[in-house]
């Protein structure tokens, strides 16, 4: 949704100016968390690579409906063309290169969401621990919706957690190697 807002305090010698913003709206506690998470993560990304995302304007709760929450950011006209892959990946690499963790750990200070799915952002010491924790969290959410895992899925999940993830990620942080925690989207 695109809305026109007016500056709250225009200068005394000018008329209020319209500002085009993109507005996202969601209801309930889930919606509140989603809007707050989107705002906080967008602010974090914008501070590091401002050309990568629209400028976040704010988030909050409607005065007229305390169960309805919003997130606002600058509006950018978009087309249906695919973005330039080289430019996109360069911005993504810059984000990972320039961002630093405030406490030297993997995680984020608040819950964020992938659509309506909460992402577990608890602080962890290693990339393997963070990735494993999130993978387990998504498996648990899947079981809440779909019911208990089939024997085949349970076996594959166990193999992923006990073999695949450790074999892929642990070598990156052993033998003196270290992955510097950075902002991931």
Automatic annotation (TrEMBL):
Family matches, as InterPro entries: Fructo-/Ketosamine-3-kinase
Protein origin, superkingdom: Eukaryota
PANTHER family: FRUCTOSAMINE 3 KINASE-RELATED PROTEIN, PROTEIN-RIBULOSAMINE 3-KINASE
Protein name: Protein-ribulosamine 3-kinase
């Amino acid at each position: 949704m695109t809305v026109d807002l007016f500056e709250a305090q225009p200068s005394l010698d000018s008329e209020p100016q319209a500002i085009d913003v993109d507005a996202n709206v969601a209801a309930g506690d889930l919606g509140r968390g989603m809007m707050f998470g989107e705002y906080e993560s967008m602010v974090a990304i914008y501070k590091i690579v401002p050309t990568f995302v629209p400028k976040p304007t704010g988030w909050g709760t409607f005065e007229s409906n305390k169960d309805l929450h919003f997130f606002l950011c600058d509006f950018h006209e978009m087309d249906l063309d695919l973005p330039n892959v080289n430019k996109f990946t360069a911005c993504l690499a810059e984000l990972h290169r320039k961002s630093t963790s405030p406490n030297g750990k993997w995680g984020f200070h608040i819950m964020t969401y992938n659509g309506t799915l909460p992402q577990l952002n608890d602080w962890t010491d290693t990339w393997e621990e963070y990735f494993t924790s999130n993978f387990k969290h998504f498996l648990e959410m899947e079981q809440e919706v779909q019911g208990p895992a089939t024997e085949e899925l349970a076996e594959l999940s166990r193999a992923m957690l006990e073999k695949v993830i450790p074999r892929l990620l642990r070598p990156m942080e052993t033998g003196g190697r270290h992955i510097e925690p950075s902002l991931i989207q």
